[in-house]
Specification:
This protein is mainly alpha-helical. Helix content is about 80%, strand content about 0%. Helix 4 crosses helix 11, helix 5 crosses helix 11 and helix 8 crosses helix 9. The two termini are about 30 Å apart.
């Protein structure tokens, strides 16, 4: 038992020590602002793609996927405005504006790469063109995934009603639409974490090497969201301080908290790999 505690202490000290010494708090700020700057261009690009492909229900689906894992106090002020923007029919999928939106969205992927390269203590030596192409591929895959989910959520209720009419006992197991939307949102979040930890940073990692950090990120997301939501409900004075900018400031602070947790997840994985002597690409 003592050896386990010593190992845990060494791993935690290594992870937090490297986070502090390698500008983790500043990188969290960069990642939070990059996330804001990438989120809306990505949604506009994905909505344009969905409109071009005929998925009219995309706006509502995208909002649920993105914001269902956010605290209600953070998500509510932004969600309706996002729906208003995405509900505008766009036929300009091939215009420069939408292409620029995809490019700005890929900058958010690059911010994730930067933070994970630092967390995993690896040096990036892949070409600029490969990295940018990979970032754009992440944007396209995410947009396609959102499109597929929006189609499924349109077809799903029809299939459920068809099943309920013929198999009465199945209704009890279907749950509510809200529950399944939350399940989908969590599944998307977990899939995204697996993808970015596995393929974005330089070097190679096995899936087993990234699981601890992903679990830490999910638990930290839940804890951080709950604490921040409780703070907003009881003590926050953002509305008085920032007036009309309050919702954006709340989103930035929330994303800053989540960014720090995300980077610490990578730091935890790197510390465990160093302790076990795994991963020759990890540097001191």
């Amino acid at each position: 038992m003592r050896q386990v505690l010593v190992a845990v202490w060494q791993i935690v000290k290594d992870a937090f020590g490297h986070f502090n010494s390698d500008d983790g708090w500043a990188i969290s700020s960069h990642l939070a602002v990059s996330a804001i700057m990438a989120l809306f261009p990505f949604l506009i690009f994905a909505a344009s793609l969905a409109s071009f492909l005929g998925a009219e229900a995309f706006a509502d689906t995208a909002v649920h996927i993105v914001f269902d894992t956010w605290p209600h106090e953070v998500a509510e002020p932004l969600a309706q405005e996002v729906v208003n923007v995405l509900s505008v029919r766009r036929g300009d999928i091939l215009t420069f504006g939408v292409l620029f939106a995809a490019f700005f969205a890929s900058n958010g992927v690059e911010a994730l790469r930067l933070s994970l390269n630092r967390a995993y203590r690896v040096v990036e030596n892949r070409s600029f063109f490969f990295l940018r192409a990979q970032s754009l591929a992440f944007v396209l895959v995410a947009a396609a995934g959102f499109f597929a989910i929006s189609v499924l959520l349109v077809i799903g209720p029809v299939a459920v009603n068809f099943a309920n009419e013929r198999v009465e006992w199945i209704e009890f197991y279907m749950g509510t639409i809200t529950f399944w939307r939350f399940v989908v949102a969590v599944a998307v979040l977990v899939s995204a974490l697996l993808a970015v930890h596995r393929w974005l940073p330089a070097g190679r990692r096995r899936f087993v090497d990234i699981i601890p950090g992903i679990i830490f990120t999910l638990m930290g997301w839940l804890a951080g969201s709950s604490v921040f939501a409780a703070y907003l409900a009881r003590f926050s004075s953002y509305a008085n301080t920032y007036a009309g900018l309050a919702s954006m400031m709340i989103a930035v602070v929330f994303l800053y908290i989540i960014s720090a947790i995300f980077i610490l997840g990578g730091e935890l994985n790197a510390a465990i790999m160093r302790y076990r002597g795994v991963g020759r690409t990890v540097r001191d």
